[in-house]
Amino acid sequence: MHPLEKMIGEGEHVRQDFKYFLGDARKIARSLAAFANTEGGRLLVGVKDNGKIVGLKHREEEACVVEAAAHVFCRPAVQYTTRHWEHEGKVVMEIQVAKSTKAPHSARPLHFTLDNKHRRLLQVLGTQTEYKDFDIAELSRLSLMTRRECIVALAGLIASGTIQTSR
Predict the structure, then answer these.
(1) What is the rounded CA–CA span in Å between residue 119 and residue 91?
(2) Lowest-pLDDT choice from 12-16, 26-30, 61-65, 127-131
(3) CA triplet 161, 162, 166: central angle to 5 degrees?
């Protein structure tokens, strides 16, 4: 049996949640904080509540939402790891959160301040005709930021509603 099938076979429970997609970083932050404050847990993204694997639709965007949830909306920031599982041609992202030694964590409302990195990224994005899929490597190269800086800046812009995505 594939390890992903085994995890899904457990169903949703106190330490596991299924997400069809990650649309709202604030909502995901609540799940991450809850896992960090208890015994830990995992999110399986690309899996419907009934356990059906649908796969990720926008892999880079999903990574940005997780980054925003963990580092922009959670205080203190929640540490997590990700793993991508491929099964029958579909990719599922596993987000694993361990019990935190820095608990309690809380999910806070957005206090977003546009800084120079956000402005630089907005300039680069201004040359794009649409925000359908974000090529982080290309955005990183054009904005002269590291991939991580680019992801964090993009996550803030998406979470604040400064830019709209294709969803």
Answers:
(1) 33
(2) 127-131
(3) 65
